[in-house]
Amino acid sequence: MYDKGAHARLLAVLPGLIAGGHAAASSRQEFDQARLSSVYSLAAAMVSKLGSYEQARLTADRARTWEEVSGSPIAAAAAARELAIVLRHQDRTQEAHHLMQAAASRVEATGLRTEASASAYAQMLCTLAYTAARGKQRAEAMTMTEEARRVARWLPPSAPSGRLFPISPAAVDLYAVGVHWALGDAGAAVEAGKDLRPAQFPTAERKARLGTDMARAWWAWQRPEQTARALLDACRASPGEVRDRPAIRHIVSELAERHPHTTGVRELHTAVTRAS
Known about the structure:
Elements: H1 7-25, H2 30-49, H3 53-70, H4 73-89, H5 93-108, H6 115-134, H7 138-152, H8 169-182, H9 186-193, H10 204-220, H11 224-237, H12 239-243, H13 246-258, H14 265-275
Helix pairs in contact: 1-2, 2-3, 2-4, 3-4, 4-5, 4-6, 5-6, 6-7, 6-8, 7-8, 8-9, 8-10, 9-10, 10-11, 11-14, 13-14
């Protein structure tokens, strides 16, 4: 459901999923405890995407509690990432930065002997790069992006089903779009994403994320037609990724107000409001 952008359906089943996770974790087995932590990480990602950051903070804290109980470094990485995302949105970028540095170091300390741990490390580096960019730490942001690319070269173009961090070389390149955008360099962001294609991403959520990330870059570069085109691509992949994310919906509203006659804007606005 998350991968399809079916946000309302996922919200409806999350309470039962969490309850089932708690029932399983009563076994006191590490795997069951780590899985419960991952359920809370999923819940945090979902409500954070919808802009409910206080609720996301509480849920991410629960993910961290259960990863500590389980001792799983992969679950710990997922929980730290979701908490860092919340902290960024709460303008606590420095805290988020320290948290991601510690998470990346913890995963690296496992020795990265499996694809799962290597993909977790690449994801931590990507999130750390974006967090550094939001804090205007350009040198670190670019260094972490290049390190993530280096690690991702050893990963398959499509991650196996069920992997907690389905990172790929193309996914790292998509993060580079966000890193440049966060650093205020819209032209570099567009350049970073110009060769990316939806077919490189296995889920509707990631295909749509390609569209929304490119739209943010085009919008920052004051290119309304290209912005509308990218958002239409995102909407076709997963309407929820445009309709339900407050920052992206705000761009749609601004396009409709400021550029109502630009090609694609009316179609986009109609698609988003109809989906509501």
